[in-house]
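Deviation from plan, reported transparently: magnesium ion complex.
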Amino acid sequence: MTGQFEAMIGLEVHVELKTRTKMFCSCSAAFGGEPNTRICPVCTGQPGALPAVNREAVLFGLVLSRELSGRIRPVSRFDRKNYFYPDNPKSYQITQHYRPLMENGWLDLPGKRIRIHELHLEEDAGKLYHTEDGRTLVDLNRAGVPLAEIVTEPDFSTADEVTAFLERLRDVAVYSGVSDGRMQEGSLRVDVNLSLRDLRTGEPGVRTEMKNLNSFTEIRHAIAHETLRQEELILSGQPVLQETRRWDEALGQSFVMRGKEEAADYRYFPEPDLYPLVVTDTLLREAEALRKEQRPEKEARFMKDFGLSAYTAGVLTEDPGTAALFERTQALTGDPKGAANVIGTEILRLLKETGTLPGESFLTPEKLSTILKMNKEGSITGAVMKELLALTYREDVDPSEYAREKGLLTVSDESLVGEWADQVIRENPGPVREYLGGKEKVLMFLLGQVMKLSKGRVKPDDAKAAIITKLKEIS
Ligand code: ADP
Ligand code: MG
Ligand code: ZN
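Because the crystal trials were delayed, the predicted structure below was used instead.
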């Protein structure tokens, strides 16, 4: 940027709610499924089928609203947003246009408050698949899945602020247990509205809306790209058109989808098939009871109670499943630092490798604490511990039984370790000569061979002592 303009950015964020059933019918809202198996007359828009509001979705909406500090409307309402598209079988979407569930919230970033205009409930559309032979197929399993749409004021001026906000918002949704918050799976979707304000004249610019942003990286690219595009237009005297643009990840640029539609284009009107949504005290109390400890609170508590560094507390609270695994494990072992250490390294590596969350693996706090205790008592080495962790993560095994049956327990029998050292010396005459000739570094290689022979069951110190003794004997 030339410094003449400042970006004004506002977000529209769709949070897919993990309710058991859809927003207005009792079809399963779970992700996936054979195409068109989770559908019924309501979510496919059959004439005469009547919607009914999902209470759990309202509760989840209230839980989020509360974390965002907004005013909850005692009576909100659903409206029809009319448009035709093949993934929208009713030719309207039920949303909350005139009276959203929550208004005037905020979320604080370090040094900046982002105002939230509103949170409203609505339903998702179906999904279109474009096949290689040029056909388009529609899957309505997603049609009618509950969404909370969160609309911010245009309070952001940089991509850093936008991603910081989205990370906070994702944490809120995930920690509250109302959403998976996964951008790749589409359970967190973000549209970016951006305009450039002329800093010399104070003149506000025309905004565009950008869609199809599937990761934080793409959001950053799209913001940088759109800022440049608008700046070039303004500086060359061309108008910025108010339009909706589609970000193309592969090409790294955006394309016009449609001219910006005005509210009037959607002919919004109150949904005649639904009563107004009355937020009773009972509902508010239930939402209150669903409140969960949020990530910043948990981080602070981990630092205070377990003496963890801010960095480690941050790593362990990446997601609630990891945090729970840590907390329960340390309660069983009585050694928070040990649990933090292994979870922050080995377990996180397994998590990335397998693309799962700790809660989805076979590694329970009980099994993890057994493995940690075995290592601490010296009955398994660090190397065997890593092997056991990886196995217990992926398969349903009992770690102590497995270690015993497979002969993984630490060997401290000196004569056996000595035999392995002898064998290594016999089989590696070259390196042994080098070592005896003064090349001390070769010791590490020989040591490694002993470890390998023992399948990691010797403590490195014991292996080292044995090999040095044997080498002395022959020198
Ligand atoms: P509309 O109803 O016309 O879509 P909204 O007021 O609902 O407009 O705003 C939609 C989004 O656009 C919000 O996220 C808001 O923050 C953002 N927005 C509004 N004005 C601007 C602007 N001048 N520059 C950038 N974003 C804006
Ligand atoms: Mg809008
Ligand atoms: Zn249905």
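The chain has 15 helices and 16 strands. We consider this an acceptable substitute for the interim report.
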